[in-house]
Amino acid sequence: MASMAAFTLVAIDPDTESYEVGRPFIEKAGVAHKVDFREGKGLEKLDDLLAEEAAAGREAAFDFAFVDADKPNYTITPDPISSRWS
């Protein structure tokens, strides 16, 4: 598992307003520099993230994934993630 110093939290949401509601709490916690917010649909942005890592010569690895949206696709979403647990 990544140390606290090495973590990055990737937050994906189709609504920037939701992120903006939480931003003050993220800033107060002193971890705003650790949050990579990506606006858009989860599966599309996850594909983008994996492609970026591959282009940089890195294999994306996840210590934790929490999926709380797009409920009809719950059975689809873990596939691109589950093979990348670190």
From TrEMBL:
According to the UniProt entry, its GO molecular function terms are:
O-methyltransferase activity; S-adenosylmethionine-dependent methyltransferase activity
Full protein name: Caffeoyl-CoA O-methyltransferase
Q: Which species does this protein come from?
A: Zizania palustris
Under the heading InterPro entries, the entry gives: Cation-dep_OMT, SAM_O-MeTrfase
Has keyword Metal-binding? no
GO biological process terms, semicolon-separated: methylation
Task: Give the domain of life.
Answer: Eukaryota
Is Transferase a UniProt keyword of this protein?
Answer: yes
The protein's UniProt keywords, in alphabetical order, are:
Methyltransferase, S-adenosyl-L-methionine, Transferase
